[in-house]
Amino acid sequence: MKVVTDPAKLLLERMLRLLRWRVWVQEKLQPTEWQITLLWAGFAGFLGALSSLVFQGLAEGAHQLLTGSNAGVVESMKQLPWWAVLALPAVGGLLAGIVLMLGKHLTKGQSSTDYMEAISIGSGHVPIRASLVKSTAALFSIGSGGSIGREGPMVQLAAVMASFIGRWRQFTPPQLRLMVACGAAAGIASAYNAPIAGSFFVAEIILGTIAMESLGPLAVSAVVAAMTVRVLTSEAQLYKVPEFRLSSPLEMPAYIALGVIAGVLAPWFLRSLKRAEQIFIATKLPLVARMTLGGLIVGALAIQVPEVCGNGYSVVVTILKGQVLWTTLLLFVACKWLATASSFGSGAPGGVFTPSLFMGAGAGFLFGQAVHAIWPGGAVDPRAFALVGMGAFLSAVSHAPVMAVIMLFEMTLSYDIILPLMLCSVVAYYTAKGLEGRSLYSEVLKKKAAEVSGDAGFGRGQVAELMKSKPPTLTRNAHFAEIARMFLATRVNNLYVTDAQARFLGAVSLHDIKPYLGEPELAELVIANDILREEFPRVGPESTLSEALGRFLNFEGERLPVVDSSGKLLGSLSKGDLLLALVEMRKKPLVV
Amino acid sequence: MTDLRVNSGEEAIRALHQRLRASTPEVRDAEQFMHDLLERAALSSVCIADDVALPHARTTAVGRIVLAVARMAGPVAFDAEHPRVRLVFLIGTPKAAVSEYLQTVAALSRMLKNVTTRAALLGAPTEAEFRAVLARAQQR
Fold it and tell me: What stretch(es) of chain A map to CATH 1.10.3080.10?
């Protein structure tokens, strides 16, 4: 007998099978919104690592193009004639300035590019064009030997990628901010091959919290980024250091003293960068001329001390090997300080993270040598002081001692030094904080926060600010097939039912229909109205976040409908967003 | 009820509603129940086969699930697509009983999907035999 089958029925059966499968997967794996966020965080980490590698490759390409050498920045500078050394950073500054100037036309109307601002006080939106312009300019500053770090643009690009994912997936502002934070963590993890420090950098400095709601996705993103870099470049730790150890407890006083010194020097270092910026602005020169001048100063210093060029990585390696005389190092540190202030002050886009490590290594080594000369037992190996100095200086500059300790450990994989490193970093942090309330990053954030209107962030702490508008809805006479299709397409567990005036009537629960997905006959009869739960909990747009949390306490779902006083459905509130916002609100006083 | 003589789907619903109202105190608000039944039928078809209709309502008017069954004496038009309905199962479920409602409707759908059962119900000579066929089908 020939079986005649209705194609519409076949389609319905197929759809119900798919929905059954989805429910099965959901029940077995039970992916919550948090778990899905982890997946996207991992993807952000992967893209962040790729963008970092591409930037690194382009920076090296720009350097080769400008110097004709594929050696490191310092080595290339040593090979060039004096006039080229003088001119090169200036040409780099000029090109970077031109890119920024031309880029202004392209990026008109775009908001600030700063990823920290986007995470802390903004909407999580990092503009793509403006970031690309800034990164292109950074290629010239870095490629020409400017005394500036690569990590800034690398983190920026990774954050842009993450922001792009978030906007594509139409994440709510708290989710988008978390996604950008994941991008930043991936950027740090890629730049320094330091996934733990990458996570803590963002958690401690930008988010101001190490709550698992945010630290989990940050860690996943950073791990994926570090894995990607390791697979694609076979890189191990950044600094290969000899085995250092605490030779005797008698060394501890010297380490404490180093902590105090780093804590005093770091605010000076920051103030000098700020002062340099003010001096450059006071010249009233246009940006292109300022950046050329900044490059020229670096070039002039580099004629005698080519080690001032670049982010200072190769010199740090030399210091950690102990292959430098203290007199030479004193000159390096002084010139590097001046060069970094010139590059940073003139407006060269880049980071001062690695230059900070240079300053710390230099100061630590010099101090260690001094103590060693007076009392050898108090500082047995000055190179260990260089390593600890790096952590202490970073801790004092960033006001993030946990991140600094972890980063040093990850960059060197030297655990033996952990005791003095921890103590010294904490002492440096408290000293710096006592002298100067602002860190390298809080300065930027405070300035930006003051510029942002009171409406940004969670000023009023109301549900409307977190609500995701246009949730998927059904009409009351939607058939089972349409309900199944929408459940398949939207990945929600409850579909809201509205009338023609968009008034909320109730919700259809996937849980209710789950046992009947194998019955297509039922599908022809049942409509949304038949299985509507009118008593479904809801929340008002003006409810406070704690009121909303109260509603979630008695509700097993992940989302609540937001309904105004006239009964109109305005959007939906996710439990994940609510918890993130509550975490953000808790740390808000740190930022403003 | 067997061999109910009505001229339209609405008349069939009214007759079954009347029967339920008379036979059980669980129908607490007869007018509201009727209103909800007709409103549901107006929203979308209540037929699951050419000759079977399941008018139903989730309503505040009943205290627990109520069910009335009737065989029409002749074909009755429930809507344009179902002009020859013979078997009508009227269901009323309390508002909150979504799962129970689905359970009942699913059980009836399964039972009435069976062509033999449908033929036996249509061919039962007496109300007693009609009930016996229903009971046997339910046991299966």
Answer: 33-233, 249-451
Let me know if B74 is exposed, middle or buried by CB neighbors in 10 A (0-12, 13-18, 19+): exposed
Q: What is the CATH number of domain A249-451?
A: 1.10.3080.10
- Whether the Cβ atoms of residue A359 and residue A375 lie closer than 8 Å to each other: no
CA distance A31 to chain B (A): 24
Domain that holds residue B102: 9-139
Contact A513 B102 (CB under 8 A): yes
Q: Are residues A41 and A221 in contact, defined by beta-carbon separation less than 8 angstroms?
A: yes
Average the pLDDT over A253-281 and give the result: 91
The torsion region of residue A208 among left (phi > 0), alpha (psi -120 to 50) and beta comes to left
- A534/B113 Cβ within 8 A: no
> Across-strand partners of A462?
A544
- Out of A516, A526, A534, name the one closest to residue B95 (CB): A534
ipTM confidence: 0.85
CA–CA separation, A523 and A297 (whole Å): 77
Structure tokens at A357: 């490590």
**B81: DSSP letter:** T
Contact A530 B101 (CB under 8 A): yes
Between A and B, how many residue pairs show a Cβ–Cβ distance under 8 A?
Answer: 55
HSE toward the beta carbon, residue A77, CA cutoff 13 A: 28
Which residue in A477, A515, A521 is closest to B48 by CB distance? A521
Q: What are phi and psi of A86, to 5 degrees?
A: -65, -45
Q: Which of A477, A516, A533 shows the shortest C-beta gap to B43?
A: A477
Please state, in angstroms and as integers, the Cα–Cα distance from residue A544 to each residue in A62, A278, A395, A460, A586, following that order. 52, 43, 37, 8, 14
Residue A517 touches chain B, beta carbons under 8 Å: no
CA angle, residues A101, A106, A112, in degrees to nearest 5 = 80
Residues A72-130 have pLDDT tens digits of 888 888 888 888 888 889 999 899 889 888 887 776 655 555 666 556 556 667 787 88
**Do residues A193 and A139 touch, judged by C-beta distance below 8 A?**
no
Mutate to test the interface with B, among A499, A525, A529 (most CBs of B within 10 A): A525
Find out whether A98 and A288 touch, Cβ atoms under 8 Å: yes
The secondary structure of residue A514, as a DSSP letter, is: G
Q: In terms of C-beta density within 10 A (0-12 exposed, 13-18 middle, 19 or more buried), how is residue A373 classed?
A: exposed
- Determine whether the interchain pair A530/B95 forms a contact, defined as Cβ–Cβ distance below 8 Å: no
Which chain A residue has the Cα nearest residue B48?
A525
CATH number for the domain that contains residue B27:
3.40.930.10
Least confident of A440-454, A459-473, B5-19: A440-454
- B99: contact with A, CB 8 A cutoff: yes
Q: What is the pTM of this model?
A: 0.67
- Closest by CA to A354, choosing from A368, A365, A366, A340, is A340
Question: Are the C-beta atoms of residues B71 and B89 closer than 8 Å to each other?
Answer: no
Residue B73 lies in a domain: yes
Whether B65 and B97 have beta carbons less than 8 Å apart is answered as yes
Q: Does domain A33-233 have CATH number 3.10.450.60?
A: no
Share of chain A above pLDDT 70, in %: 87
Query: Per the domain annotation, does B1 fall within a domain?
Result: no
**A531 and B102 in contact by Cβ < 8 A?**
yes
Which residue in B138, B7, B137 sits closest to B72, CA to CA?
B7
Q: Which residue of B has its CA nearest to A531?
A: B98
Provide the 3-class DSSP secondary structure of residue A6: coil
Which class in CATH covers the domain with range A463-591?
alpha beta
**How many domains, chain B?**
1
- Averaged pLDDT for residues A439-466: 59
Which residue is closest to B37 within chain A, CA to CA?
A530
